[in-house]
Design brief:
Layout (H helix, E strand, L loop, with lengths): L5 H16 L1 H33 L1 H35 L9 E12 L2 E8 L9 E5 L2 E9 L2 E6 L6 E6 L4 E7 L5 E7 L9 E4 L11 E11 L2 E8 L8 E7 L2
Antiparallel strand pairs: 1-2, 1-12, 2-5, 3-4, 3-12, 4-5, 6-7, 6-9, 7-8, 8-11, 9-10, 10-11
Length: 252
Amino acid sequence: MSKKYIPLILFFLLFLGGLKFFDPLKQYLFYITKSIKTTYLDTISYFEDLINLHLNQKETIKKLLKENQNLKEHYLKYKAINDELESLKKECNITTKSSLNLQLIRAISYTTLGDFSSMWVDYSDFNQSKIYGLIKNGFAAGIVTQKDQKPIALLNSNFKCAYAVEIGQTRAPGIAIGKKDGTMVVKFIPMYKNIKIADEVVTSGMDNIFFYGIKVGRVVKIKTVGGYKNAVIMPYANLSNPRYFWIVKRVK
């Protein structure tokens, strides 16, 4: 080996050692790569929007008109229900106010190559002490927590993803936990609660991660473990293209 390559090899080895043991260097490299990825995603989104604007105007207008009609219908229903709720609260002298705060966030990249269950996300208002709920196309999709002081999305297929749910008409409580095979298991369901196959699972809102009623999936299997029931569920959320999510910033 030529001696002129020895300094280069030594520098490379020192660099790798610094990545492993020197946290400020790791943080610096993370922010550099994050900036590059964010700029790349912004550029791609800009050109996609430009192409859609000029090539798909007719279809886009039709789609937006239909969505606008649906939104008007949902708004009228929401207003009627909200007015009825406010009237009921007034009659019962209830002063508690609900405040739901959602924000659209973007995924930057998977945290580990080959692991599709966790992603770095771009969320500027991140609070390390909180756990946030993730929603995709109206369904519960996972949670956002912290890793190395940065926001990380743990999707429904991640075993560290967990949130409170209710099952079926009996509203049986439990904790939904992710599984690698794409299903979830709801644990700690009381034995006295009657649940059955095909029961729908929704968020309970009791963990301050999600608000009540976000659909999660349906029960496909029930078994008894210790003094509790466990229910395996098939989630509704399609996470094959996880570019954007709604994050639940505040529940109450």
